[in-house]
Specification:
2 domains, 9 helices, 271 residues
Length: 271
């Protein structure tokens, strides 16, 4: 464990996905926040899980969701996004698709699919329009007033532009996520809960373990990258040398195949 790991734990804010997911384990806060952000009434929560992994098939990309909640007829997925990787459009599409597949795997029929809300709370402006909130539904190009009744909603919040947000509670929440000090009753409840989470020794150890594992994975990937880079340079030089001596293409492929664990298709790319 690094010396400053404890300091990192103490300095975590609500924008950290681990801390946010633990916060949303509080059913009262979870329901209140969803109702605030989406302007709707949340029923009795029948399923609440933080850091839920949806892994449909072994050869498909799995997704670890920050917060996944179901009530009687709706599904809510809430994500914290600290950095803009320019892939939110496709990411939100994939999340919503996987949530639907996850529900159907339970034996539901198409007509039984619940209303689905995927909410991204972004510490940046995801679309550069200066809005504090962007809500998307599927509409018809030819008839813009015609909304496809697929009951899917994609909502993005922007913590960097809150001056035009009319709802004072939403504005206060977004400002709090952005690291600003606000005077608000609900935010005070959230902040007090976060302080309790930070005093939870079990969760602190869990976070440290995850941090350590992430470091190990990063180091493994770094070493693999170095090895791959070295190997790529060696293959390239070997091919250049063989070409210089006018070795036929078929013989080059055979030699590279014998020396390195790569496919013929990969060798063709080098050639």
């Amino acid at each position: 464990m690094h010396i400053d790991d404890n300091k990192k734990w103490e300095n975590l804010t609500i924008s950290n996905d681990f801390l946010f997911s633990k916060l949303m384990r509080d059913e009262e806060i979870c329901k209140e926040l969803i109702e605030l952000l989406l302007h709707l009434k949340v029923g009795e929560i029948t399923y609440i899980q933080e850091q839920k992994t949806i892994d449909i098939m072994h050869n498909q990309k799995s997704v670890r969701l920050d917060v996944y909640v179901e009530d009687e007829d709706k599904v809510y997925n809430i994500e914290m996004k600290v950095s803009n990787k320019k892939d939110l459009d496709k990411r939100v599409r994939y999340y919503q698709d996987l949530i639907d597949i996850n529900i159907l795997e339970k034996g539901a029929d198409y007509k039984d699919l619940k209303e689905s809300y995927v909410v991204f709370i972004c510490l940046f402006d995801p679309f550069g329009r200066g809005g504090s909130r962007y809500t998307f539904r599927n509409r018809c190009d030819e008839y813009p007033d015609l909304v496809l009744k697929d009951d899917t909603y994609k909502i993005f919040f922007n913590t960097k532009n809150t001056q035009n947000e009319k709802n004072i509670d939403i504005k206060s929440f977004l400002q709090y996520v952005n690291g600003e000090k606000v005077n608000n009753k609900f935010i005070e409840k959230i902040h007090n809960k976060i302080m309790k989470i930070k005093n939870n020794e079990e969760w602190r150890r869990e976070y440290m373990t995850l941090l350590m594992r992430e470091r190990e994975i990063a180091e493994e990937n770094f070493q693999k990258g170095i090895k791959k880079g070295i190997e790529k340079g060696m293959i390239t030089k070997q091919i250049e040398m063989l070409k210089r001596f006018n070795v036929p293409k078929e013989d080059i492929i055979k030699e590279i195949e014998a020396d390195y664990n790569i496919t013929k298709e990969e060798i063709e790319k080098y050639l």
